[in-house]
Amino acid sequence: MQPVDLADSTSDFDSPDAPRKNRLDAPIRGPKLGPLEFLRWGWRVLTSMRTAIVLMVLLAFASIPGSLVPQRSSDPNGVIVFRNTDPELFAVYDSFQLFDTFTSVWFSSIYVLLFVSLIGCILPRSLHHWRILRAAPAESPDNWVRLPFRRDEPATGGADAALARAESSLRRARYRVVRDGSEIRAEFGYLRETGNLVFHIALVGILVTLAVAGGYGWNGQRVIVEGQTFTNQLASFDTFNPGAWFSETQLEPYGVGLNTFTAEYTQRSSDDPWVPVDFIAELSVTDDNGTSDATLKVNEPLAVGNSQMYLLGNGFAPIITVRDPDGVVVFEQPVVFLSQDSNLTSVGVVKVPDGLSEQVGMQGFFYPSAVELESGALASNNPEPINPAVTFNIYTGDLGLDSGQTANVFQLPTEDLTLIAGRNTGVDVVLMPGDVFTLPGGLGSVEFSGLRRFIGVEIRHDATQFGVALGVFFAIAGLLASLGTRRRRVWIRVAGNTPTAKLEWGGMARGDDPRLDVALDKLVERSRPTEPDKLGTT
Amino acid sequence: MNYDLESISLISTYSAMAVYALAFILFTVDLAGRAATEGQSKPTRWLRAATALLALGWAVHVVAVVTRAISANRVPWANMYEFGLTATAALVAVFLGSLFWRDVRYVGAFISGFALLALGIVTVNFYVTVVPLPPALQGYWLIIHVCVAILSTGFFATGAALSVAQLFQESREEGKLQGRSWLFLSAFPSAAELEARAYRILVIGFVFWTFTLVAGAIWAERAWGRYWGWDTKEVWTFIIWTLFAGYIHARATRGWRGRPAAILSLIGFGAVVFNYSIVNIFFKGLHAYSGL
């Protein structure tokens, strides 16, 4: 099949800038295609450049839903919110896998097709380029006058000497040169195609790495309160996402304790909001080498075991103590409150299933620096714990913890519960540190008995990093080499006889090359004999 | 934080806009003048004045960028306003720099008009006072990642200007757009020439965008624990990269050269603008640094 892009083969040598051949332009003859012909035809269509372009544009457009609709991978909370707000639309979207855009069947099929097309293109091209690399520069064209660059030079000092000078001029410019009797054939810029191929092969390499090594990765999230220690085992994670080939033995044994967490804030003037300047977590890391101190900050992950630990969030964990009517402690622990705004107004839930005559659930608000608004409601005006306060809505009833289903520790479904204290009950529950609230009906008491900070960390082992980094390195190197190199061919032949003999230079470029004339004129210039006495050089 | 310099920066920004407006008017007068001379493609005397004004406006613009940086004591691209301020300066710099390479003053009206419009929108809508950097933005990756993003935006915008000119010229060469009001197009190079120039500029933009994507991925690994997570901004970075990759291939493919390639380049630039404006303001994601 005659590739149409290559039809003008005198000016388009070997694989073009448009390296894919435009096979679609070729007429498809014959009314019927057998199965084999059909496959061959399909393969040609798939590996054609046009199909590749269409697939690239399709891939770009297919990504858009991934930014419009919350994704399970990057925004699981958003997905839950979406489901709660509009269950019907959620079902429709979900049937199109819109919440998993980048692993969806339609998105995957586009990029798989694109990469199959890419591989179908680079394999023959690599083979072709390999042959070109091993071959001598091509024969001079029959149609010399059509060459875009032509110069005639007097063969000063005889044809042989002039040819020798021309050859060394070309070699100094790193052309590949073959002298064939009275003709020189030279070629430059193989790196253009080499770089191009390296770039595309590197992209395939990245995809293969993601597919293969991605399965060995894992990541998990965990909240650590000051004074607590995290041990690296499956049960210790709050959430855990294993790769396809994860096994528990991949988790190296170590422990990380949070000694202190410090947050620094600043404000421009007293009317402006507080903005964070620094978050510093001081840790003790215990592993095979013993215990050592470490610092974890945003942008500065901690390497521990075969994994990396990242500081992703922080907040306050008021210590809540619940006692029965006899003063026996039935619940005492720091409760993680999740911050809702820049002044760290936070919400949290306390569940006391055992020890009291009824199960008690408490929805709480935490204000690091509580101030009372005109409406009587509390707000926080500073993210630092200057005047910490906790408020609660307290419920009794079945907390639903005995059903065996995993319950969200940050949510308290209140539909089946009875509100006994808090908002709209006439009994406000506002606790400063050390304050004790006596539960109605002789149930017991609640105390805000201390305050800790917590950090949210992600611990991650990513087996793809090295391979992807390597692929990216080669892709960029290939891209730069390819874009920075011009592919040029030069032929020199002798015309006429001594003493009027001259060298005819002819040259051409592959693709656009506005600097062809300038570059080749320089080569001609350098091939002239050096004459120090010569006057009036132009 | 130096609040005097901050207000000097803002005054300089408005001054630069005023000078850009003058340059835009003169660029337009030049094009109109060429149309009036029945297709004589000689630049009019207004062109030199317009270019000089653009250069002056750019100098004032750079003052605005530098004083902003000094007043904040960091790089001037930590929020949406600062990105817009610096990216428009980069765009004008790319255009002025291109003049050393080729005489592309014929797109000066587009460039000065776009810079004026962008700077105006950014200053009126996105202006925020200098505040310290949040922890996630601290570190040298902010310098690298956003700097290359700004540079590539400058190149993409200049390439878009040339692609627009190419589309008009292509229609004219096909016999459309023959009225007197289109005569100024005769001052422009041929569509093929415009395409070649747009391509060279856009390829540079593509290389810088590749660096933006990679530097962003490395930074994301440090800050968020993964180098790629399909955050909305990452999605759009990928979309832009794929569109311009498609453009580069289209340029080299028969049947896609010319108008389709130019349209693809404009869709790509549209995605760049969308990513900066709509995605920053309305989309949820980890890149919530607009400061608004």
Describe this structure in words.
Chain A has 538 residues and is of the alpha+beta class. Chain A has 4 domains: 4-128; 136-189 and 486-526, TATA-Binding Protein, CATH 3.30.310; 217-315 and 458-465, no CATH class; 316-452, no CATH class. Chain A is 28% helix and 30% strand. Chain A contains 10 helices and 24 strands. Chain A has helices at residues 35-46, 49-63, 65-68, 76-85, 87-95, 105-134, 159-172, 190-213, 465-484, 516-526; strands at 149-154, 176-180, 183-188, 218-225, 229-231, 239-242, 255-266, 275-287, 290-297, 302-304, 307-323, 329-334, 338-339, 346-352, 360-367, 370-372, 378-380, 389-396, 418-421, 430-431, 436-438, 445-461, 488-495, 502-509. In chain A, the strands form 5 sheets. In chain A, strands 4, 6, 10, 11, 12, 21 and 22 form a 7-stranded antiparallel beta sheet that branches. In chain A, strands 13, 14, 15, 18, 19 and 20 form a 6-stranded antiparallel beta sheet that branches. Chain A is elongated. Residues 1-24 and 533-538 of chain A have low confidence and may be disordered. Chain B is mainly alpha-helical and 292 residues long. Chain B has one domain. Chain B contains 8 helices and no strands. The mean pLDDT of chain B is 88. The interface between A and B is large, with 62 and 54 residues.
Helical fraction of chain A equals: 25-40%
The protein's oligomeric status is heterodimer
**In what range is the share of β-strand residues of chain B?**
under 5%
- Count of spatially separate domains of chain A: 4
| Beta-strand percentage range of chain A | 25-35%
